[in-house]
Amino acid sequence: MITEELFRSDSYLQECEATVTGINEKGGILLDRSVFYPTGGGQPGDVGVLVGADGTEITVLTTVKGDGNENVVHVPAEGSALPAPGDTVTARVDWNRRYKHMRMHTCLHLLCAVVPHGVTGGKIGAEKSSLDFDIGDGSLDKEAITESINKLIKQDHQVGARWITDEELDTNPDLVRTMSVSPPRGAGKVRLLDIPEVDLQPCGGTHLAQTGEVGRIRVSKIENKGKRNRRVNIVFDE
Ligand SMILES: [Zn+2]
């Protein structure tokens, strides 16, 4: 049974009531709905707790995608007393960590908009994030990138999502900025992250509602990753 992904329509949900639908072969907990984001697209899976009706807490160490229909698997701490199918739980994410992921993730879209090169990889963390670019024979300026991103943050652009069909994506291949991750297909439609006049690309991650919430950032360093590849590292600058 597919888990309803509440974080797709509202990334600000910190908890939800849910019913346990099963325990998979590896001991992962499956729910009918969840606010927990599973590892994907360079963003780490959420951690948090599942609170039972009697108040017992199960620590969720991470959230991943499983096999087949298992789109959201809550991985409990070893030795946890597992709930039974049919049990009701409150699923609560570690909001402090997840909100940092949302700020970093949204910031990487701004980085993508500022650097006019193809993206070859990326990694999101609560304290540090990075994108890799194939810059060809171009060059990157740390201070200029920092300044351009902070300007977009300060302008407080609205961040939204919309859906297009696979066919629309096929006829607009330029929408795909990230060469290393092809957007999920087959479902008939693709979710686009839309920061009007700044960035538009397929993305299934969790974002902020406004770029202003990112807060000041800086490019901490630009690393050489081969002749054409550069890794741009971002940290919060508070
Ligand atoms: Zn995104």
Task: Tell me the layout of helices and strands.
Blueprint: E1 4-5, H1 6-9, E2 15-23, E3 29-31, E4 33-34, E5 48-52, E6 57-64, E7 73-76, E8 88-93, H2 95-114, E9 118-123, E10 128-134, H3 142-154, E11 160-165, H4 166-171, E12 189-195, E13 199-202, E14 217-224, E15 229-236
Parallel strand pairs: 1-4
Antiparallel strand pairs: 2-3, 2-8, 5-6, 5-8, 6-7, 9-10, 10-15, 11-12, 12-13, 14-15
Helix pairs in contact: 2-3
The protein binds zinc ion.
Number of extended strands: 15
Q: Counting H and I runs of at least 4 residues, what is the number of helices?
A: 4
- Percent of residues in helices comes to 10-25%
Sheet of most strands? 6 strands, antiparallel
Radius of gyration: 19 Å
What is the string of helix and strand elements? EHEEEEEEEHEEHEHEEEE
CATH superfamily of the largest domain: Threonyl-trna Synthetase, Chain A, domain 2
**Mind telling me which CATH architecture of the largest domain this is?**
2-Layer Sandwich
And the CATH topology of the largest domain? Threonyl-tRNA Synthetase, Chain A, domain 2
Listed once per kind, the bound small molecules are: zinc ion
The end-to-end span amounts to 43 Å
What's the oligomerization state? single chain
**In terms of structural class, how would the helical and strand content be classed?**
alpha+beta
Give the tally of structural domains.
2
The dominant shape is globular
Average of the residue pLDDT scores: 93
Biggest sheet, strands in spatial order? 3-2-8-5-6-7
Flag low-confidence runs.
none
